[in-house]
Amino acid sequence: LLQLFLPLGTLGIVYRQVKYTLADMDMVFRLLETPQEVKDSATASELQVTRGEIRFEAVDFGYQPERPILHGVSFSVPSGAKLAVVGHSGAGKSTLSRLLFRFYDVTGGRILIDGQDIAQVSQASLRRAIGIVPQDTVLFNDSIRYNLQYGNPQASQVDIERAAKMAHIFDFIESLPEGWETMVGERGLKLSGGEKQRVAIARAILKQPPILIFDEATSSLDSATEQAIQHTLHEVAGHYTTLMIAHRLSTIVDADQILVLDQGRVVEQGNHATLLALQGLYARMWELQLHDDSR
Length: 295
Ligand code: ATP
Known about the structure:
Blueprint: H1 2-32, E1 54-61, E2 70-77, E3 82-87, H2 93-100, E4 108-113, E5 116-117, H3 123-128, E6 130-133, H4 144-149, H5 157-166, H6 170-175, H7 193-207, E7 211-215, H8 223-237, E8 241-245, E9 257-262, E10 265-270, H9 272-278, H10 281-293
Parallel strand pairs: 3-8, 3-9, 6-7, 7-8
Antiparallel strand pairs: 1-2, 1-4, 4-5, 9-10
Helix pairs in contact: 5-7, 7-8
The structure holds adenosine-5'-triphosphate.
Domain ABC transporter: 54-288
Transmembrane segments: 1-15
Subcellular location: Cell membrane
C-alpha cells in the first residue's frame, strides 16, 4: 500500500510543479499575446545579482524591423534607486520594461544587470531576479491564496499574510465570506483593477526580487485607491531597484530620477524639480496634467 501512496504523493508534487509552470507560461503569453521569441544562448550563464544595478546602453529596438520604436536609449538605475519613465502614449515606456524582462531581444546596444549582459544569461535566472507588477494582472481560476502564493510557491501562510498586509489587501481577503479560499479569476470573484494590482504587489513582495518593475495601470483608478497603491508601492519600492513606468505624473514626483521619452528617444532626464526648471516637455506635461486634474 505504501508503495502505491508514495508514487501518488510524488505525482501530486509533479502535478503542482507542472501547474505552476503552465500557469507561468500561460500568464506570460496572455500578457503579451505574442509567441516567445528569445532563446537562451548555448553558453548562457546564471545571472549573479549583487547590487541590482540596471544599465541600458544605446538600446535600439523595434517590434518589426521596418518600424523602429527605441533609438539609442541609455540610462542607469543605481542599486536601490527608483527611476520613473514618462512620455506621451506610444513613446515606448512599457517597451523598456518588456526588454528588461527580455520578452524581446534588443536590436542594438545592450542591457546590463550588475555588469552582465541580459542576453547572455539564462532567462530563468533573469526572471527570478525581477518582480513585475503589470498594468493588468492576470488572475488564475483558483483561490486567492493560490493567486498570492504564485509569487513564491514555497511561501508559508505567515509570509503570505504579511505580504497581503503590506499590499493592503489583507482586510479585503478576510472580509470575504470564504476568505482565503475564495475562487477568483474569470470563473470566480472578479476583482477590481486596484485589488488586482494589490494582488500583484503582494506577489512581488513574496518573491523578494532585487529588481522591481511597476507598470502603472493606464485605466484610472479612483484617487483613494490610487493613493493607497502609491503609498504601498513607496514602502515596497524602498527595498528594491525600481523601474516605474508612469502614466500619470502625480505618481512619480518622489522618484530619484525621471526619464522623459519622446518617440523612442530620451529627451530629458533629472528629478522633478530640475525637469520643471528645464521648462521642456516634462514641464509642459506637468502643466497639462494640473489642468486636467483641476477639471
Ligand atoms: P502607453 O502610455 O500608451 O502605455 P507606451 O509609451 O508604454 O504607451 P509602448 O507600449 O512601449 O508605449 O509602445 C510603443 C510603440 O510600440 C507603440 O507605437 C505601439 O504601437 C508599439 N507596440 C507595442 N507593443 C507592440 C507589439 N507587441 N507589436 C508591435 N508593436 C507594438
